[in-house]
Amino acid sequence: MNLVGHLVVGLRLAGVGPTHDVALGVMLPDLGSMAGLRADRSGLPAAVAEGVRLHHLTDAAFHGQPWFAQAVAADRQALQEAGLGRGAARACAHVGFELLLDGLLLEDRSVAESVGVALDGLAAERLGAGAGGEPHRWEELFRRLRDSRRLTDSYSTPEGVAHRLRWALARRPRLALDQAHLDPLVERLQARRARLEAVAPVLVETVVERARAGSGAPGRPT
Questions:
Q1: Cα atoms in the 13 Å half-sphere on the side-chain side of 155
Q2: What is the distance between the alpha carbons of residues 73 and 177, in angstroms, rounded to a whole number?
Q3: Domain count along the chain
Q4: What is the average pLDDT across 197-211?
């Protein structure tokens, strides 16, 4: 799962609101990866650390679902046939699914408001000693996220997701996408989004159920 999905599921699992430190924790691994930062989990406040635990529990539940594995395999094959390299096709299929799901979840006003509140409350001081020796880098990341919604706004369309994927993969030469790859990538993302539109809430419910059970066992088919 990605940032928005983690927040939605994490708040459900913990029974807290978006201003709670658990909410920061469930987003923290994704936030850190954006800037190449890693929190010192042993130094995090208890509630933030609990959120990080729920993040990993949710990922295990999400990635263990057969519908996710099947979708990623189908999209990876289609993208390879369209000319993307194997690694790039795999990355785009996996992360693309997650970003599209985030975009669909944000169409719910209550979700969008929760995400906005959670991002507005980001502050390095909430990490305590978990910020390690780089609280200034965490604060700069949080400031950018507080001041701009361009990150989550990009998830709302297949085109936005495609450009986000290209930006993310550009840092890894073996996975970088050429301009010529964008059209087939957008086409595949459009097809995947159409399939996700009707089932996104069900997928989230399945992940919540599996995470509550502490297992990534198969859930409801889609």
A1: 21
A2: 19
A3: 1
A4: 95
Residue 117 lies in a domain: yes
Residue 221 lies in a domain: no
Quote the tokens at residue 80. 């390879």
Residue 146 pLDDT: 86
What is the DSSP code string of 26-93? Answer: HHHHHHHHHHT----GGGS-HHHHHHHHHHHHHHHHHHT-HHHHHHHHHHHHHHHHTT--HHHHHHHH
pLDDT digits (tens, 9 = 90+) for 70-115: 999 999 999 999 999 999 999 999 999 999 999 999 999 999 999 9
Q: Tell me the average pLDDT of the chain.
A: 93
- Does a structural domain hold residue 217? no
User: DSSP label at 173?
Assistant: T
Q: What is the extent of the structural domain holding 152?
A: 3-212
